[in-house]
Amino acid sequence: MSITEINFDGLIGPSHNYAGLSLGNLASSRNAGAASYPRAAALQGIEKMRGNIRLGLRQGIFLPQWRPDGEWLAQLGTDISHAEPHIRAAAMSASSMWAANAATVSPASDTQDGRTHLTVANLVTMPHRSHEWPQTLRQLRIAFSDDRAFAVHAPIPAPFGDEGAANHMRLSDRHDLPGVEVFVYGQSGGPFPARQHVEASKAVARRHGLSPDRTLFVQQSEQAIAAGAFHNDVVAVANERVLFTHEHAFADKDAFYARLRQVMPSVEIVEVPASAISLADAITSYLFNAQLVTLPDGAMALILPTEARETPAVWHWLEQMVAGNGPIRRLVPVDVRQSMANGGGPACLRLRIVADPNNIDPRFLVDEPKLDEIAGIVSNYWPETIVPDDLGDTRLIARIEQSWLTLVDHLQLSGDLIP
Ligand code: SUG
Q1: How far apart are CA 350 and CA 343, in angstroms?
Q2: Which of 18, 160, 233, 407 lies at a C-alpha separation of 20 to 30 Å from 184?
């Protein structure tokens, strides 16, 4: 048995567009109405996966969802040709690409029954995301169908908003050792919604059978949400014994750090002071929305968006950090601009699962040759560009459907996934 960390990236779907659907997500609002480039977007995501494989990391994939979501439209008593523009945009959204919001995951070493537990996120706060979970659950139940190793749970009931791993951090001395799980919830976001509710976090922890003395519930600061950190992973990230965070990420950081040090004395907290990087710069550059990973040689690297390199105060601070004696030793910028323009950085695009890859359905694991095949399908089928005003165009819709069917068929998942 070889327990390892596998990053599952959401492949960016053929309907990727900028409809400005996410209040509180500054990039989404800023780019509302702009032309998107689904083909380029998906190829950027594939290159990120390829880069991570070349760094020696294990890589998995989740497929885009069937769009438009006709089942959801039918529940609303309409269909794609009659739906009002905002409902049509929600039914066409490719937002399942942000796999960090697919589910919350607790590895086997943390849970009472020794299985890896996953709870699919309900995403109820945002209409365009609230209908993702049935198709996400379908994929999770296939990928992690071995019920000796995995337990896959249905979503927490509304109205308790749950946004998955984007508000969950796990710290442990090594991936395969018991860890401390930190659930970050919002109470108020000033003008913006607090998307993760504490009741949802507590329910996930109970269902996963986590030990109460190694589980922390921490409030996200109102200031961070109001500044555009609609998920905690926009201002903090953890890996093994390292927490990398902005000074203003949490409502009461002193209490949180003290408790964390008590339950995990080996923890190393790398805090970026607001005097060096303002919350505004942290949010534009998305430096914390990075994959903090342990490389095969044991060093830690930050896989972060190229935007971080373009924000001088941020890059200067990061270069000094890696030159110092801290645990983070390498910076790896990646270009995921198409996703970034909707508020999704490298960390949003992936869901981390610590498990034995042999227990996972191999159709959801990728290597470079398989990525080449997927890139070939994307290049041949994904629309080059979409403007949100065209989302009702029947030719565009037919093309999006054809793209999806071709991919799913190629990956031999038609029998399992076609609605
Ligand atoms: O939920 N954007 C996503 C971005 C999610 C990022 N994920 C993490 N931080 N883990 C969101 O706000 C924009 C969709 C639009 O406007 O069309 C969107 O849904």
Answers
A1: 14
A2: 18
Tens place of pLDDT for every residue, the chain, 419 residues?
Answer: 699 999 999 999 999 999 999 999 999 999 999 999 999 999 999 999 999 999 999 999 999 999 999 999 999 999 999 999 999 999 999 999 999 999 999 999 999 999 999 999 999 999 999 999 999 999 999 999 999 999 999 999 999 999 999 999 999 999 889 999 999 999 999 999 999 999 999 999 999 999 999 999 999 999 999 999 999 999 999 999 999 999 999 999 999 999 999 999 999 999 999 999 999 999 999 999 999 999 999 999 999 999 999 999 999 999 999 999 899 999 999 999 999 999 999 999 999 999 999 999 999 999 999 999 999 999 999 999 999 999 999 999 999 999 999 999 999 999 899 86
Pick from 126, 88, 12: nearest CA to 397: 88
pTM of the model: 0.97
What are the counts of helices (DSSP H) followed by strands (DSSP E) for the chain? 16, 15
| Torsion over CA: 104, 291, 353, 407 (sign) | positive
Task: Give the nearest ligand 1 atom to 101 CA.
Answer: 10
Q: Which residues line ligand 1 (CB under 6 A)?
A: 18-22, 25, 28, 93, 95, 98, 100-101, 126, 129, 166, 230-231, 233-234, 342-344, 348
Domains of the chain: 4-417 (3.75.10.20)
Catalytic sites, residue numbers: 163, 231, 348
- The angle formed by the CA atoms of residues 185, 186 and 187, to the nearest 5 degrees, is 125
Going by alpha carbons, the residue nearest to atom 5 of ligand 1 is 344
Which tokens sit at 105?
């995951």
Rounded-to-integer distance, Cα 191 and Cα 152, Å: 35
Specify the amino acid at residue 274: A
User: What is the position in ligand 1's atom list of the atom closest to the CA of 344?
Assistant: 6
Tokens 């550059």 appear where?
A: 285
Strands 4-10 and 58-62: parallel
Helix (H/G/I), strand (E/B), else coil: 180:
strand
> Cα 13 from chain centroid?
15
